[in-house]
Amino acid sequence: MRARPGIAFAFLMPALVLLGALVVYPILYSVFRSTFDASGSSFVGFGNYATIFTDEDNLTALKNNLVWIIVVPSVCTALGLIFAVLTERVRWGTAFKLIIFMPMAISMLASGIIFKLVYEQDPDKGVANAVWVGVHDTFAESSAWPGARPRPNAELAKSGGGAFTTKSSVSAADPANLALVGVPPKDVAGAAGAKSAPPAKSGGVSGTVWLDFAPGGAGKPDVIDGKEKALKGIKVEAVKGGKVVGKAETAADGTFSLPSAADGAKLRLPASNFAAPYNGVDWLGSTLVTPSIIGSYVWMWAGFAMVLIAAGLAGVPRELLEAARVDGANEWQVFRKITVPVLAPVLGVVIVTLMINVMKIFDLVYVIAPSASQKDANVLALELYLSSFGTKSNQGVGSAIAVILLLLVVPVMVVNIRRLRRESRR
């Protein structure tokens, strides 16, 4: 620069022009535009900034950005450190690291589409709910025939809470036939045919629960016909004086048998027989939408943290580790007292890089969050887009959000640059 400043300036000029056109000018114009109203004709000073800190959507975006900044770098760095340390000595460590790093090759848009499908509410479509429902149904009993119900004006009637109870008392001399409808024919395709129950022994009460519907509409209502199917596994309770005096469960042919105490009682089919099947968790609802999106981001960036930390771990002097082990330190003490302090500069790089990255997160939130819960998952970059180009159409507020984002990112960048300069002097 001192010897031949003209040549140096000529080489730097194209870069300076591009930097000014693509970085400096947009920053200055955003600051200028943030002081005007939506139309850009009236000067409002800091009015747009006041709007940001009083508007509910903007406050939600600020809160969510704070959650992202605190949670994501910490989780990604912790996972990257664990993966790097645990895979250092295993033979298949390289293959594992490759698998963990592979999501980095996927764009944010593609990742958002993938996880929108993963978080689909329907367990037949969404992987997350398919797994969750499978685990739930393993430990929790599901309803026997969801959606089944009696015919209007039938002997069975609603008795509160989704249960059905007979209108009149039953007798040991007369088997109780409890007819239900509302079950899709495909659900009973493999069921056995319904049979009339024989009289119960020892003065008990017997009966049959069946699907009172035959293909083609054949048969008579409330009569067990030859083509009608039994409903297996339905719980039947005998209720007398408000108390349950007997319980039974229908067999494969739909029949059941209650003890003699059920004579003169009313029969109740509990609501647990007809409850809708467990449909999993609403991952993209207002409560879990932000944690769910954070999970997709961690899936992508944990590999980035792992690779950087693994590179730093490769440079840790093995003599330090072996000396600590010889002195009697266990693996946890070696990890906590030596590995982590030596890797502190690398961990700092990972955390700062992720902090800068999550401050401007936009793609995943825009793609994954459904319109119903997008406000609950809102972040500053998304609010900037919605304010400037969405339904709000207020580029004054959008420019103010952009300036705030810049002010949030600059201190982190300054810290990172100063740290890099200190590292280069060593």
From TrEMBL:
Family annotation (SUPFAM superfamilies): MetI-like (SSF161098)
Pfam families in the cross-refs:
BPD_transp_1
Primary residence? membrane
Arranged from A to Z, the UniProt key words for this protein are: Cell membrane, Membrane, Transmembrane, Transmembrane helix, Transport
State the annotated membrane topology for this chain: Multi-pass membrane protein
The keyword Transmembrane helix belongs to this UniProt entry's keyword annotation = yes
In the UniProt record, does the keyword Transmembrane occur? yes
Q: Which residues cross the membrane?
A: 7-28, 66-86, 98-119, 298-317, 338-356, 396-417
Protein name in UniProt: Sugar ABC transporter permease
The organism named in the record is Streptomyces bathyalis
